[in-house]
C-alpha cells in the first residue's frame, strides 16, 4: 500500500537489465537514533528473508 492509500504494482523489467545496487545513507550519529536503528534493522531483516518485492539475490 502506498502512503496515499493506493495499491502498489510491481512490473518486472525485461531484457538485458543491469543489477541495481541499494544502500542507506545516514547522517553522522543517525545510527544511534532508535527510530533510525529500527528502520535499518527492519530493512536488514527483509533483505535477509528475501522479502523485498522484485529482489532476486541468486545472481
Task: Give a summary of the structure in a few sentences.
With 59 residues, the chain is mainly alpha-helical.
Walk me through what this model shows:
With 59 residues, the protein is mainly α. It has a domain at 23-53. 25% of the residues lie in helices and 0% in strands. It has one helix spanning 34-48. The longest helix is centred in the last third of the chain and has 15 residues, at 34-48. The radius of gyration is 15 Å and the shape is extended.
> Which class do the helix and strand fractions yield?
mainly alpha
- Return the average pLDDT rounded to an integer: 85
- Tell me what portion of residues adopts beta-strand conformation: under 5%
Largest sheet: none
Shape: extended
Contiguous uncertain segments of 5+ residues: none
How many individual β-strands? 0
Which percent range fits the helix content? 25-40%
Number of helices: 1
Radius of gyration: 15 Å
- What is the string of helix and strand elements? H
Distance between the termini: 28 Å
Layout of helices and strands:
Elements: H1 34-48
What descriptors fit this protein?
mainly alpha; 59 residues; single chain
Amino acid at each position: 500500500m502506498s502512503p496515499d492509500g493506493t495499491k502498489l504494482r510491481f512490473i518486472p523489467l525485461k531484457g538485458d537489465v543491469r543489477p541495481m545496487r541499494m544502500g542507506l545513507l545516514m547522517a553522522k550519529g543517525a545510527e544511534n537514533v532508535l527510530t533510525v536503528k529500527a528502520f535499518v534493522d527492519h530493512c536488514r531483516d527483509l533483505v535477509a528473508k528475501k522479502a523485498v518485492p522484485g529482489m532476486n539475490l541468486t545472481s
